[in-house]
Structure formats: structure tokens, C-alpha cells
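Subgroup meeting minutes
Present: P.N., E.W., G.H.
Scribe: E.W.

1. P.N. recapped why we're keeping a running log of single-chain structure predictions: easier to compare across weeks, and new members can see raw inputs and outputs side by side.
2. G.H. added today's entry (623 aa).
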Amino acid sequence: MALPCFLYFECYKKCPLYLCSKYVPRKLCELRLGQFDVRFHAEPFCLYPGEELVGAENYGKSGSNYKTAIKAQPVIKADHAIRLKAILDHTDDDGVERNAGDIWQIEGPLMYFPTPNAEIVDIVAPYIIRAGQALKLSAVQQFTDKTGRKHVTGEEWYVNKPGAYLTGVNEEVVSMEESVTLTKDTGLKLRACQTFTDENGVKRLAGEQWLLTGEDQDEYYPQIGVEVVSVEKRVVLAQGQYCVVLDVVDSDLKPQYGKRELRKGCCTFFLHPEETLENGIQNSFVLSEDEAIVLIANEDFKDTNQKGKKVLRKSGEKWMVNGPVEYIPRIEVSVIDKRKQIPLSKNEGIYVQDTQTGRVRAVMGPESYMLQSYELLWKKELDPIVEEMLKHGGGTGSGDIRKIAYFEQSIDPQFLKGRDKTRVVQYRCPGNTAVQVNNYLDKTARVVFGPDLVILGPHENFSVLSLSAGKPKVSNAMKSLCLMLGPDFITDIIEVETSDHARLRLKVAFNNHFEYEKGNKESESKVFAVPDFIGFACRQIGSRIRAAVALIPFDEFHRHSAQVIQQAVFRDPVTGATYPFLKFDANNLVISSIDIQSIEPVDKKMSDSLTKSIQLAIEISTK
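Output recorded in log:
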């Protein structure tokens, strides 16, 4: 069986045609210029002069193919449609008047017979709407749909009935959207883009927000004028958890701005629009016996203390809740600190400041101390040089200084790791030394004699000694926290000049110690009256030796050097009496003996001459 087909004819020339036949008398035919005709499957026919096949390739030329003008007749499937456009004003087979430019469509299933009055625009396929989907449509112009609902130009609506949906001529597909499945733990925060009445008959104003949960409906299909702001999860509070909800909604679901509400576990809830959690979900405070929390009242309210008594809390008041207890703070209070008892062993302590009076004190062990609600740990700052000296045991200087060895026994490992400024400052005062501590608040001083542990109060600082060191002595070569009481010795190099201008370099060592009376504050503080006692002693002794040597010639000094220096140091310049020791009244420093370790001429030539004379004298004595 041959397939259905059709042909388009078009006439171009307007002229009379004479059709001749031996059986038919001659008659006159008229050519209709510019009009079309459609031929369907029938007997073969020929083209008259002026008629042409629409779509035939190279028609009228050699090699022309008329088969390209033959087209298959449109067959429209079920749920499909053929969309047509009127070329001329006409009345179709259903008696409907069509004007040129009108567009309409015919739904299948059917076989369409083309007409010269309309052209085929498109074969319209349906949109398949599956479960959980919604088709968003827009009206191209005002019309009434299949259900009898009127739509205005630009109006949008949704179709969510599962199945095949065939769009009309005046309908335009905007998008295919998915529905949202709502469970008992999920919800949607929706916002109205325009004023409308929803499916439940509630009037929604433009900009209004509301919550839709699985308790209201199982599935949410997109709606015109409604925007999905966010997908909300149910807030779950377990045992021992709590939260504070801000801007809580009332029974009419209207937010009460500024209102706070405390919710404790176990419970679940959804946050309504405008509601937020303050600091999220928080765990309750589980306090052991040695723990506590500090609370502050944000407003006046009546409270029940841990003893069960009613207490009126004033705004700004601070108090503590001690363990063991599980505590959830009320909305009227804030937790400002969580504290634990500080264990202190013997000779350990902390600095504590009273925030009400500003007073700072040191709390010493052995005990476990819990800071009160009005107390804070106080940080004691020290001078950087003192910090450095504490790391090295109480003294700093170059490694060739002999007295640096005094401080090695006092090195505290805690200062090497970094000092905790809230802990009481301690210093292990070495034996046979003294440390002076100044209280700058009371303007007093105390002296600690070693071996002992020096503990600084909150308003106390060490007296730093800048001592001379080296040979010859150099000022400020060593810093020290402790003063060496002796017996000790000091070595120095002194340059002298005799009466005959011989310049000599003397290396002398003298034993020293301090005289003091323990318990007598005046006597104890007097040893610190001269900060650089080494430099002071060296200068005093050096001046006496130089004065004595300047009065005698070189030969006499060479023969009696020990006697000259002894008398220069220990003779009283006023009375002329010689004493077995020299005492400085300024700081009670006592020089008990002096020894000449070497005598060298400053001039090298003189040194060579002196050496030769000594050798010659030895040879003469030997012979």
C-alpha cells in the first residue's frame, strides 16, 4: 500500500489556457496567480502551463527531481499536537473562522490533511510531569485554559499533576521544578514575594515569612509568589544541653523582638522566621568539687541560691556557683569565668587582686586556693634585666669573671622555660650572700641572708647591683642580685710611679668581708649603701698604694715593696697607727690582708734592665 503523501502547486502567470481534446470541446481555463493547491494520493496528473511544484529541485531543467516536492502526510501521536498558523483568512472544516496570522493547534491522535490556507508551525510534544515535579507556565496573552480558568498576559502558575501535559498556544514553559519532601525533622522557611492567599486560606502579605514543616504537609510544591528562603532542620537538645532563643514568636507567630527564652533538653523544636540561637547549642556546666563558675546579673531578678534561700540579685552583681553540681544559667545571667582550685605546695604562691578594692596580695601554700568572684590573678611584671638575671641564677656578666660561679647553684629551671607572671617570684639566695628587696609601695627595704629563699611580694623588687669586674677592674662589668658577704678576695692590677719616675704595674689581691649585725635593720641595710663595693674598695686601696709609692725611689720600693704596701693600706693617715685590717665605714667592708702577686715595670726596656740586674745580683751572691 502506498504511503499517504501530498503536493503543493503554485501558479505564477495569469493568462488564458486552452485545453484541447478530441473528445472534449475546446473550453477556456483561468490560471489563479499566487494561489496554492494541495494534491493527495490519487491518480497521476500532469502540470498545466504556469503551475509549479513547491520544493521540487531544479524544476524545468534537465536532471530535475520532482520527488523532493512530495512530502509525508503528518501523523500526530496521542498526547501530541500539530501547531498551525493561518496564511489567509478562511473558515476551517470545523466552521471556525481563522484570520491571517492566527495560531492554533490540533491534538492527536490523528492524520492531518494540510490545506493551502494554513502552514505547519511545529509538532508539539508533551512535557512529562513525574511525581514530585511541577511545571511552571506563563501566559503569552490573555486566554482561558482547558479547565475554564482565565489567565492574563504574564501570569504564571504551576501544574503538578503527574502525567503528560500538552502546552497550549498561549502557554509558555518557564521551568520544571522539583517538589520538596517534608519529614518530621525538616521544614521550609518561606517568604511571600507578593500579597496572596495560600492553599490553607491564610492571607500572606508581601515580605511575610512563615515556617512549613512535615507536620503541616508531607510534600511542598512550588507556588507562585512564594520564595524558599532556606531548608530548616529540627533543633534537638539532648540531656545536659540548653540554648537561648532570641526574638521568640508569640501564639500568633509574630516575632517579639528583644525577647529571650531558655530551652533545656531533652526537647526538639523548629526555629520560626526571625528566631535565632544565641551562641548555638551549649552544654550545661558540670562542676566537680574543685570547680566553680562566676556569674553576673544582666538585670534585677529573684534567684534561689545553692542553700535554697531566695536572693534578690541586682544588675551587675557577681557571685559564684560551686561544685559538685550541674548548672544551666538563667537568661538573666551570664557566665563570665570558669575557675578551678589552684593547688599550692610549700613555698609556692600566687598573686591575687581584689577587684573591689584594687589591693594585691600574695597567697602562699600549702593549700588549694579558689579565687572568689571578686578576685583575679594578677601578673607581676619585672624589669627585663631582672628577668635575664633570674634565668642565670641572679647574675650576668662575661664568662671569665670568677664570681659568676656563685650564681650557678641558684638557677631555677622554671625561669628557663618562661616565667608564669601570676606565680610568686622566688630566688634561691646562695650561702654567705645577701639580697636586698625594696617595697616601692611602703618605701621600705629588707635584707635576706643566704642560704634562703627570697619571695617577692606584689609590690617588691630586687635591688640590682652593678659591680666592677675584670683585671684591671671595669665598671658595670657584672650585674648581680646578691651581695657576697665574704670572706672573699678581690684581685686588681694597679699602676704606680716611684719618686724617680719608674712606672710599675702591681697585681695585688686582698681578702675582704662585711661586718653586720643580724636583726639590726640599720646594720643590714648599710652593707648595700655602696652599690659597687668592689670598685669602691679597689679605688680606695689603689689610691693609698699610689700615694705611698710616689714618695720613695725605685730601689727602696724594690727592696721593701711588701712592707710599703702593707703600711700604705693599713696605716691610719691621721694618727699614723698601723692596724691589722682596713674597715670602710660607708658600708662596713673590711680588708683583712693584702698580697702582692707580681710587680712588673710598665716600660719594656726597664723590665729588661731589671731582669739583668737581678740575674747579676744572684750570680754575685752565689760566688
